[in-house]
Amino acid sequence: MNVEGKAYRTIWLAQDGKTVEIIDQTKLPHEFTTVRLSNLEDAARAIRDMLVRGAPLIGATAAYGVCVALEDDASDARIAQVYETLLSTRPTAVNLRWALDDMRARLLALPREQRQRAAYRRAAEICDEDVEICSSIGDHGRDLISGLWEAKDRKGVINLLTHCNAGWLATVDWGTAIAPIYKAHDAGIPVHVWVDETRPRNQGASLTAWELGRHGVPHTVIVDNVGGHLMQHGQVDACIVGTDRTTAGGDVCNKIGTYLKALAADANSVPFYVALPSPTIDWTIEDGLRDIPIEQRDASEVSHITGRTDQGDVATVKLTPDGSPAANYAFDVTPARYVTGLITERGVCAASRDGLEALFPERKTLSA
After folding, report:
1. Distance between CA atoms of 83 and 358, rounded to whole angstroms?
2. Residues 22 and 103 occupy one common structural domain
3. Which domain holds residue 301?
4. Are residues 342 and 199 in the same domain?
5. Integer Cα distance of 249 and 351 in angstroms
6. Could you tell me which of 77, 238, 289, 338 has the fewest CB atoms within 10 Å of its CB?
7. Same domain, 256 and 326
8. pTM of the model
9. Which is nearest to 23 in space by CA: 180, 216, 172?
10. For residue 178, which of 188, 163, 189 has the smallest C-alpha distance?
11. CA 303, CA 327: separation in Å to the nearest integer?
12. Would the annotation count 328 as a binding residue?
């Protein structure tokens, strides 16, 4: 993705060939800043404090976190310590565990002196694979959007509603739910995006709107509770959201508030699509409500908000009365029955085990 005419990924190897650079997403949209990750503590903080976020990018950052952590010690014990430290940073997104499992298995199979070089090689592969996967998701989702436009006889605008940020900032590049929108826009299909603000961290207002603006995609930021009203009045042609973990049965876990959008879409016969890369599928669980751990973050994310003043200063202010406690559930689970279809790198399928296994038959063989 381009920022001020320069091509960026969200994570890349620095020129020294050892440290890793990322975009500090906590500073957006008011400041574009990059941060260097030099050791395990840097990588863990970047994930935990959401300098990086989005399931695919969390996985890529964890992979590179392993690399920088093995600079002086690539022993079995060190790999185990690094694994546990990074795994504990964010509990909900399954890509974190997937990337760490992949790195650990590959490295432990090698002699100690070969491990760090192999770690960097595999981390780079994970990033490249994510870009390819997200581009393919964009192609399949673009075809869905094209179908919506054809159903309108190519008249008017296709209005899409999204929640949170599932664009290139949530991945290494392209994004998941936003990739189809970019591809449709680039193909000349007139799209307009309703961007949920996505409280409490406002990833929609801060990140998705920033991305769309730089790509030239028409969009409007709305408060989280407007979506149902828009659907009631025929102003949403489809919803497209991302997911941090999808069960083998098709339940999807995404940013808090996604479930309510799915309910509104179902009540108003609006298609509700979920875009996901295959590493986001957790084949070990079926029931998302029962088995997906829901991260609870610090209450200050609810009670305080950061923005830019009229004087141009970035400031954090308190919203709630002194003494009022706040709860901060970061994700919710949308049952598969409310999902119209899952958009993956291999195509679109029903939100069900049969649907997923039809696209990923090798998983059916492994689970048989």
Report:
1. 32
2. yes
3. 136-367
4. yes
5. 7
6. 77
7. yes
8. 0.94
9. 172
10. 163
11. 9
12. no
Annotation marks residue 332 as catalytic: no
54 labelled ligand-binding:
yes
Q: Is 203 annotated as contributing to ligand binding? A: yes
What's the rounded Cα separation, in Å, for the pair 241 and 280?
13
Over the stretch 176-222, which tens digit does the pLDDT of each residue have?
999 999 999 999 999 999 999 999 999 999 999 999 999 999 999 99
Binding site annotation covers 156?
no
Same-domain check for residues 120 and 100: yes
| The two structure tokens encoding residue 50 | 């959401």
Do residues 172 and 56 touch, judged by C-beta distance below 8 A? yes
Does residue 362 sit in helix, strand or coil? helix
Residues 130, 126: Cα–Cα separation, whole Å:
6
Q: Pick from 32, 62, 30: which is nearest to 45 by CA?
A: 62
3 - beta bridge partners?
6
pLDDT digits (tens, 9 = 90+) for 298-307: 999 999 999 9
Greatest CA separation found in the chain? 63
Q: Are residues 147 and 120 in the same domain?
A: no
Out of 244, 251, 282, 332, pick the active-site residue.
244
